[in-house]
Design a protein that fits this description.
Blueprint: H1 11-16, H2 37-43, H3 48-52, H4 55-69, E1 74-75, H5 82-87, E2 91-94, E3 98-101, H6 108-112, H7 123-135, E4 141-146, H8 148-157, H9 165-173, H10 175-199, E5 203-207, H11 216-222, H12 224-234, E6 241-244, H13 252-258, E7 265-268, H14 275-281, E8 286-292, H15 301-320, E9 326-330, H16 340-352
Parallel strand pairs: 1-4, 4-5, 5-6, 6-7, 7-8, 8-9
Antiparallel strand pairs: 2-3
Helix pairs in contact: 4-7, 7-10, 8-9, 8-10, 9-10, 10-12, 12-13, 14-15, 15-16
Length: about 350
Amino acid sequence: MNTRRELPESPYLAAASGRSPHRVPVWFMRQAGRSLPEYRELRAQHRMLQACFDAELVCEITMQPVRRHKVDAAILFSDIVVPLKAAGIGLDIVPDVGPVIDNPIRTLSDVQAMPALESPQVAPVAEAVRLLTAELGDVPLIGFAGAPFTLASYLVEGGPSRHHERTKAMMLGESSTWHALMTALTDLTIAFLQAQVDAGVDALQVFDSWAGTLSLADYREYVLPHSSRVFATMAAAGVPMTHFGVGTAELLGAMSEALAPGAARVVGVDWRTSLADAAARVLPGAALQGNLDPVVLLAGWPVVEKAVRRVVEDGRAAVAAGAAGHIFNLGHGVLPATDPGIITDAVELVHSL
């Protein structure tokens, strides 16, 4: 049963829904993670995937940046491969490497043997959501999942890849196998997001981290129909939904098309594209999220202050150009070497503007 809260004063939910927030909302991708000493202390005792399936640990780690930085939204501490692991696919997150798949998916029979995801398999994640919604007060909780294409890339390559050779070869050369794989991963993504919605998350974000490796034509043919089904199915949840990728300047219009009409829609923008330019590329009615370069946070406060002000001004220009709203964020995740104090000061500056 959906137990979602009413949070009428949330700046994040207001901006995502096309309403006027009382301040520019700000949160950061990977805000819960390696930049925080309290996180590193916990992780010294727990492997990544172990932590992702421990409801109390997920709750504590998710809360850490909210307590420290006073951000306007929490994002569930998890990983995009969690639903794959929960379904029974053999994998591990190897330090300094990333997800590594025991038996990569290479053939149609491999696809047909893939297990489906059932809600009891992610019960710890749902329990973490319930713990968090009880603790967060008026701060909304964002649930998330990896998009089918990005999950497919890990499964086909067997791990992180620079050029996604095997993935593209399957996509272009074995389209029936590719679409079967994407159909299975779309079902899995929907099941994982639905479990989070049923537990009470206030918004959703879908990370298509590697979609920027594709041309617009290939994205439209091989990815867009599957991502669209994710968002169309989840539209019934009635929560704002964000679509994010890296290096996706040429895909922003198509990625906004994937978001379900009538829902509160947000398109994440990385630092390579100005928000004002992005506003002209996405469909009308979409809000924008972004887009400070994460490396800027390593350059010292004078540089950070100037860049933060520039992004806020760019967000205002984007809204003036037709974007439904602006949510301040990075163009990708917080880097591990980032000084947490700089992040806190950046949040305070955004709020002051």
